[in-house]
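User: For my dataset I need records formatted as: sequence, then structure tokens, nothing else. Please produce one.
Assistant:
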Amino acid sequence: MRNQAGGLWLLVRGKLSLGRQDNKGVWRQSRALHGGQWVDLVTAWTQAPFPESALALSPVVAHEFPALPVLDLCRQHPALLATLLDSLSRSACDALESRQALATQDFPSRLAEWLLHEFMLKGQGDCLTLSQFKRDLAAQLGVTPETLSRTLRQFHEQGLIVMKHSQLRFPDPARLAALSQRPHELRSGL
């Protein structure tokens, strides 16, 4: 371990796209962040380089918390350590779930699960407004933009969603939850 640790970055306000440019210079988003989310809780402790780049999708405000003073505060305030460990654990679980879903679920199931998750977090009434470009969402979900558009169109034709530009309406979320491989978990949150 190196003598100095880096910093923990918290996105306070705005939207970030995390990802990388491919060998053709095309941005490939792995995930989108909104205010209140940690940008990275892992590399600050090891001083490893950030595994991804960040691209601001709107004006952002972010705060850096130097890791060593945070560690000192954790020693004095165990509740802070518990909160950081909880955030780190959730981040690790989300990454594992995403990787496992890529390996085991077909795309319509993954998309249904992702839409319902976003709907539970950010939906208003029976609607969800997609806050990112379809190409970025497709990259995040591990498919081409064409596959994403085709699957959304199929969901629309089946009456699972009603699409109008970037706004989606969910007439019967339970029907969409039935497509995912975890319908019982998603239904309970709706």
